[in-house]
Amino acid sequence: MLDLTVRDLFDRYGPTIAVVAALALLIVVMPGNGKDDQVVANGSAGAGFAGGDQVAGGAADGAVDGDSGGSTVAGTRQGGGGSGGGSGGTAGGSAGAGGGAASSGPVYSSSGEWGPGIFPKPGPETSCREDGRMPGFSFYQPVCVPEFKGDNGGSTWKGVTGDTVKVIRFLGNPNPVESATLQALGADDPEAVRNAVDRGLVHYFNNHVETYGREVVVETYQGTGGSDDDEEARADAVTIAEEKKAFAVFGATPTGINHPVLAEELAARGVMCMCTTSQPLDYYKRTSPYVWSSLPLYEEYFTTMAEYFGKRLANRKAEWVDASVPPLDTSSRKFGLIYIEGTGARVDPDVSTAVKHFESELAKYGTGLSAKVGYTLDLARGQEQAINIIGQMKDAGVTTLACFCDPLTPVFFYEQATQSAYFPEHFITGSILMDTTFFGRTYDKKQWENAFGISPLWVFFKDVATSSGYRAFHHGDTDADRGDEGVQINVRQAPIQLVMNGIHYSGPELTPANFKTGFLRAGRNGGTVKAPLVYFTENSPTAIKDFTEVWWNPTGSGKDETGKDGVGILQKSNGGARYEPGEWPELGQPTVFGNDPAPVFTSDTPPETYDHDADGHDHGEWDKAGHEACRSCHRKSNANT
Question: Model's pTM, two decimal places?
Fold first, then answer.
């Protein structure tokens, strides 16, 4: 299995492996999974991000106008770093399709009252980090508050009592193909490791955010169907909501949940779900305030793409078309879009609305698409769809082809383009892992040498032991040895941290509405080359709000996101500088390939985490009598499971 090429996998397993492989790789591209030294490409990067925190939803900071009633804690954005320079941007920058500028930060209550996103100001007796956040390792720790004492309101919502919050750890059904794929990617953790890691992380977060006298108690639920079984997903949602009566759900299988039907059905029944990675805006409107996740929503990708096209590409010569293969007219770029609109025979109507948003954004810059074609994820029809799609793009004279796609079907597209003697520029949209070195190496080399674009990801780091997930787990389970955290540690941390931060920001009266209000008032955090900008808005319950410029270096070498050495690497431009929508500088040309003043691949610089364990303290064993089950519980419990 390890020796199979991606095309071999297609031939052997067909469409079954498509979603499995894409989701499996989420485990290994997230920060915190590299075991070996990585390299800085071209030797000019300086302080690139080593990335200790999560993309899969763990960062929990929000944005809307804050309530009155006290002074604010500034949620300022920190400027980019890296030797190539960066962009700090303004604290009130455009939030793109998400809507609305961020508030200045969480509100401290002058009366000492608690509420969603409103807290009593901590006094000298409260242990706070130097940046005003709760003690802990993550750059994205929530704002510091005093320890809660008083009446938390008891049973404020389904799954909530005065003493506990019930959270379901959803365990899906991996199939043999999934297991084989995970093993091939070096991304498989034994079930015992996954169980131990989740216990340790829940223990850690119960003691490092404020849960208002309630211990978050996790129960594992075994799903009844596969990842593509909508009917079983609906049945599971009914069981979780009506029989288990859970407050929230997160995924526990190696590939998480990422089942939009399950999440939507849970939302319809009043259950929070830390599910999905990215969906169109209309999906989040239907599921508000219950579904929260990490990567930008579709419209945020498209808003950024349109700005980049308008400021750097439109009405300019297509410089990176292969000039040796006519007859493309390169004097002025013509844009084309391939986009995934469904799976198998099912087409998602929300996607067409997002594409229309893209076209309306392009029109603001006086440009548009010369061709657009949707496809559904079905690798058994990959070649058939590729012939049709590439033929349309070539006939339309598209010079600059953007693929808002899954990471596997483009193998067919680019092979077909080469067979058709069609060599346009390829715009990397940042969608579903196409912005990784791993998948870049699976694409036709002649095609991908002309690839550049945008990505919400960042520069990965050298050693998992410097990551916040690793340090949080080992702080929560002081008996664990190095290696006990497995390879999935930072992805496993992400949804748990999202649940816990949301509870922290909700205040004592824990309800989905207050969970949402707390996130929206939490302020902005990050925005540097070391940490993506994170906040939430009314229309954007996804964490990351900024992007970096990327390009493919066909001769660069180093380890991909799975730790495998090879040739061909995805560079981040200008030292990894990041931009929100509305902030991209208007340049005569992209800063990619030979125009990049400071390309960066990976960095030895540790991620920006905090030395919370510097004094050697710990919080006891969660399975021994006498342990305080949460920061403000003050009771004996061994309930964490």
Answer: 0.81
